[in-house]
Design goal:
Length: about 220
C-alpha cells in the first residue's frame, strides 16, 4: 500500500505519513475500542496516579479517534478505576469525544484502596462493552483491555474473568512498574503473552518516547 500510494513520499505525497514506521498514523483504517483498567490501590500512590492521568491523556492525543458516534472506524477509549470488589469509578465509557476524555481524566478521584481485578474485568465486559441489544462496541472492532497494575490484588474470580476475556476475544496488555510485582497475576492478565507486559522502574517511564511509542504500536 505504501509503495502504491507513496512511491515518492517527499515529492508526491508530502502530507501523508509514509516515510517511516514511526510516522504511520496509529490505528488507521480499522476500529479499535480501547478500555483502560486502572488499579486504584494504596500501593499505587498519588504521584503514580497523576502519571497515569497524563499517560491516558497522551494516548488520547496520539490516537486518531472516531469522527462521531456512528463512525465505524478509528479508535474509542474508556477508562475505569477499580478498588476492592464493587468499588469502581468510571471516568468515561467508550467515547470518541476528546472533551469527555479530558474531563473524565481530570475528575477521576484516587481511590487509595485495595483492589480486585477479577471483579473489574467482569464489570467492564458486562457494562463497558455491554451484551446483546445493549452491546456498546462496534461491529468488527478490536477490543483491547489495558491493565495498569502491579498485580498485587485480590485474585478471587480472576480465572473466570480471564476466561470471559477469551470468549469475548479481548486483547489484553499490562503496564506495571517497579520490582515488587506479582508476575503470576500479570501473566494471567495477558494470557501468557510476555510481549504484552510493559515494565518500567516507575510509571513516569511510560511517558518517555521509547516506551510510549512502543505501546502505541502494540495496541495498534
Amino acid at each position: 500500500m505504501e509503495t502504491v500510494l507513496c512511491p515518492d513520499p517527499v515529492i508526491k505525497c508530502p502530507d501523508l505519513p509514509c516515510k517511516a514506521e514511526q510516522y504511520v498514523a496509529p490505528c488507521v483504517g480499522r476500529p479499535v475500542d480501547l478500555v483502560f483498567l486502572l488499579d486504584g490501590s494504596e500501593r499505587l500512590g498519588m504521584d503514580n496516579f497523576q502519571h497515569i492521568r497524563e499517560f491516558v491523556q497522551k494516548v488520547a492525543d496520539r490516537l486518531v479517534l472516531a469522527k462521531n458516534k456512528n463512525d465505524q472506524m478509528w479508535s474509542r477509549l474508556a477508562l475505569i478505576e477499580f478498588g476492592k470488589e464493587n468499588e469502581l469509578r468510571v471516568a468515561f465509557n467508550l467515547t470518541h469525544n476528546r472533551e469527555v476524555v479530558a474531563a473524565g481524566i481530570t475528575a477521576l478521584p484516587y481511590l487509595d484502596s485495595s483492589s480486585a481485578v477479577g471483579a473489574a474485568i467482569t464489570y467492564s465486559i458486562d457494562h463497558i462493552l455491554g451484551k446483546g441489544r445493549s452491546r456498546k462496541t462496534r461491529r468488527g472492532a478490536e477490543i483491547s483491555f489495558v491493565f495498569i497494575t502491579d498485580g498485587v490484588t485480590d485474585s478471587s474470580s480472576l480465572d473466570e474473568a480471564v476466561s470471559a476475556m477469551r470468549r469475548e476475544q479481548i486483547i489484553s496488555t499490562v503496564i506495571a512498574t517497579g520490582s515488587d510485582v506479582d508476575n503470576d497475576i500479570l501473566n494471567k492478565l495477558v494470557m501468557n503473552d510476555q510481549e504484552a507486559i510493559f515494565k518500567g522502574e516507575k510509571l513516569s517511564d511510560m511517558l518517555q518516547p521509547s516506551l510510549f511509542d512502543r505501546f502505541i504500536q502494540w495496541v495498534c
